[in-house]
Design brief:
Oligomer: single chain
Mean pLDDT: 81
Largest sheet: 8 strands, mixed
Strand order of the largest sheet: 5-14-13-6-12-7-11-10
CATH superfamily of the domain at 255-360 and 438-522: P-loop containing nucleotide triphosphate hydrolases
Radius of gyration: 53 Å
């Protein structure tokens, strides 16, 4: 999210610096002469407002724009000028504002003023020569009419005095008659005066005048670098937040031991850190090759928890499986078997993956004689038991002979390994057979612990079939690749057949930057004298019985 904010803000800054600065200025005009009228009528105001709308439309038309281009000798045509010009009313008034945006501030000022001038020239505001002569005449006559009216009013006041001092009826009658004549003349002169005023243009609604010329703009209106940078940063943050939320929503991985525990419904027995090194190191037996490795200590913790669980119930037969392939089940089963043997237990590690076995590669053993051959030969060593019951092994000596024949031993005392053998065409039927069931029960009586490595649950049904024949299932999860829906489906398949899930092991758990164990720094140096795994397996040489 921080990177997105920085990139968005930086991009906005660079884009703003590359843009050409634009300047804006405006000229304001008024329509009508209501300001000159001491008592303007509502009709005049309404008419002026309607006329203002018409003049606004004229500003962006060809006659006004073309005349402006010609007058200022602009380097572009009137069509290009239209994109830089806007006009609008000042709401609730008769004012018009003509705005111009241009890269040159002086040119923007000149264009705005010239547009206003051209608009006035093409309006009735500027009269013709004949009309101008009439206006000049009216202007000359108005003072005479005003003087006559004033003189008549003075004469009437004198007549009022004369009437009040009259001593005879004749004098009174003559004074009254002169007063009536003067009053009539005043009324006529007032009508003439009003007509002259109206003819002169007083109260004219169709009149244009500039009330505020365009000033020269100082600061550009675009680009607004600071606003663009802030806006870019905000947009980057929002997009990054949305992307993070979307990725989080789509993320189906298991991100914590608590989530794994809730999902599977059993405790997390071990958190195994990634085994550092080249790609082949993940298939090495760290329990033998690197006892001080934090992963080895995690497997020791797993061994301890399994041993504690065995105190309350029999757990000789343990099946190790996972939801999908390459999640570390074979690595877990092999290291667990080694550590159980190091604890003094007699352990049998069975490669029950008859499709893609790996135990022979991990322990550097031969694969040709293994579980498949043992089960096939086992079938010929069975005898009928009581009616209605399954058959049992003829004798413990036969079982011992089969184990000695097919099991291989390594440098670790107490550990025997039964590889997969030749891959059969029907692995599911072979693993679910009576022979497999009786072999496991016989092995559980001979060994302290039998660890069975199986294929993934979702890929094939082998693990589900075997889970009914064992004491418990150890479920392995890869912190980097296992998906929640895969685990849910695998656990559902296991529990459908009544499998008992002992716990969960999480492989490649990095602890989100924390030490998953809390004791990594305790191991600062490797202990000398560690006995690595011998490359060649020690096998007991036994001749095969011929039928």
């Amino acid at each position: 999210m921080v990177l997105a904010v920085v990139l968005a803000a930086g991009s906005s800054f660079i884009a703003s610096m590359l843009q050409t600065p634009l300047y804006r200025t405006s000229t304001t005009l008024i329509v009508g002469q209501v300001l000159q009228d001491t008592a303007p009528e509502a009709v005049s105001i309404y008419t002026s407002q309607q006329l203002a709308q018409t003049y606004i439309q004229l500003v962006s038309r060809e006659p006004i724009l073309s005349a402006t281009v010609d007058q200022l000798k602009l380097p572009f045509d009137w069509g290009s000028l239209r994109n830089s010009v806007s006009a609008g009313p000042v709401e609730g008034t008769q004012l018009i504002e003509i705005a111009v945006v241009d890269a040159n501030p002086k040119r923007a000022q000149a264009i705005a003023d010239e547009l206003a001038r051209q608009l006035i020239l093409q309006s009735p505001t500027n009269p013709s020569a004949q009309v101008q002569a009439q206006l000049d005449f009216i202007e000359q006559e108005l003072p005479d009419v005003e003087a006559k009216i004033n003189d008549a009013r003075i004469a009437i006041r004198e007549l009022d005095i004369e009437i009040s001092e009259a001593t005879s009826a004749r004098e009174l009658q003559e004074a009254e008659q002169r007063k009536q004549v003067l009053s009539s003349q005043i009324s006529q002169w007032q009508v003439i005066y009003t007509g002259l005023i109206n003819a002169q243009g007083g109260g004219n609604s169709n009149y244009l005048e500039v009330v505020e010329p365009a000033p020269e703009p100082i600061a550009p209106i675009s680009p607004r670098t600071r606003n663009n940078v802030v806006l870019g940063a905000v947009i980057g943050l929002l997009l990054a937040g949305a992307a993070a939320f979307f990725l989080e929503y789509l993320d189906d991985s298991i991100r914590s031991p608590e989530e794994a525990k809730r999902l599977v419904g059993v405790p997390v027995m071990a958190l195994v850190a990634p085994i550092k090194g080249d790609a082949t190191d993940e298939r090495k037996l760290v329990a033998l090759t690197d006892p001080q490795n934090p992963a080895t200590e995690a497997y020791r913790s797993l061994r301890t928890q399994i041993q504690f669980s065995a105190l309350t119930s029999s757990q000789n037969l343990i099946l190790v499986t996972s939801a999908g392939p390459s999640e570390g089940k074979s690595l877990t089963s092999s290291n667990l078997a080694v550590l159980l043997a190091q604890a003094g237990m007699k352990v049998l590690l069975v490669d029950g993956d008859l499709r893609r076995p790996v135990m022979h590669e991990m322990f550097d053993l031969r694969q040709d004689d293994g579980l498949t051959e043992l089960l096939v030969e086992w079938k010929h060593e069975l005898r009928p038991s009581f009616p209605g019951e399954t058959t049992e092994l003829a004798g413990s000596s036969s079982f011992e002979l089969l184990l000695d024949k097919y099991c291989q031993v390594v440098d670790q005392p107490g550990l025997s390994i039964l590889t997969s053998g030749e891959l059969p065409p029907n692995p599911s039927e072979l693993l679910g057979s009576i022979q497999m069931d009786q072999f496991l029960r016989a092995a559980a009586r001979k060994f302290d612990s039998v660890i069975i490595d199986t294929p993934p649950v979702i890929a094939v049904t082998d693990a589900v079939l075997l889970s009914r024949q064992v004491d418990g299932v150890l479920f392995v999860i890869d912190h980097e690749k296992t998906r929640r829906r895969m685990v849910q489906r695998a656990i559902e398949n296991l529990r459908t057949v009544g499998a008992r899930i002992l716990g969960v092991t999480i492989n490649r758990y990095d602890g989100q930057g924390e030490d998953p164990y809390g004791y990594t720094y305790y191991y600062t140096q490797k202990t000398s004298g560690t006995a690595p795994l011998n490359g060649a397996a020690k096998t007991k040489s036994k001749s095969k019985a011929k039928s």
